[in-house]
Amino acid sequence: MHKDLTLPHMQPLVEFVLRMRDRYVDGYVPNFDPDDGGVNAEILFLFEKPGPKTDPKEGGSGFISQDNNDPTAKATKDFLLKAGIDRKKIIIWNSISAWNGTIRYTKKEMTHTKQELEELLSLLPALRWIVLVGRNAQKITKLVDLSSYKVLNSPHPSPKVRSTNPEVWKSIPVIWRQTNKRNHEKYWIIGAITAITIFVISWYILDVIPCDSPRSVGPDCEEIIQELERQEG
Fold this sequence. Notes:
Number of strands: 6
Order of helices and strands: HEEEHEHHEHEHHHHH
CATH class of the largest domain: Alpha Beta
CATH superfamily of the largest domain: Uracil-DNA glycosylase-like domain
Mean pLDDT: 85
Strand content: 5-15%
Number of domains: 2
CATH architecture of the largest domain: 3-Layer(aba) Sandwich
Low-confidence stretches: 184-190, 202-206, 213-218
Oligomer: single chain
Structural class: alpha/beta
Shape: globular
């Protein structure tokens, strides 16, 4: 999987990953996906822990990516599409940064969680939403103050959740769609402003500009001009 890590929106994140790799010498810290929003992201999807398909040594891509060849990544990509979320507005990461051959957490890994997330958040100036995906990711609220963001708790789009609770699994894109709320409001406001502007301009043209002005337009002015011409005749 070829992805360009030299793009400007990726540089601070590349440096972040290198710092994490210095820490996790016994595991693999995957790269952020440059096809996502990078440091311009408005929505952080914080999952729990990288899986084997992120690690090149296990045939993985080397990235935390919705394009990875595993069921969770495929479900994530599908749910983002169903939720109407532009991938250029998101960034995906995990509360545990490294894959170390097991999905289990260790106390040593958990000790770094707070510092790493706070460091990551400092690199994301446009961030507004944090979606905590899975119960373990949701525990981060006990460690990190997220009051500056809108936070959503989401089930994990894993095969396990799909098999044990399919209705909950199907609800995931509905939950994620809430991150689009502000965008919908923004477009409604823009539409309302546009409509008001058109009304004001139309009123100005038809009611303020005299009908004998070369700038006058519209059938009303034509009728008035014709009536004036008949009176003069």
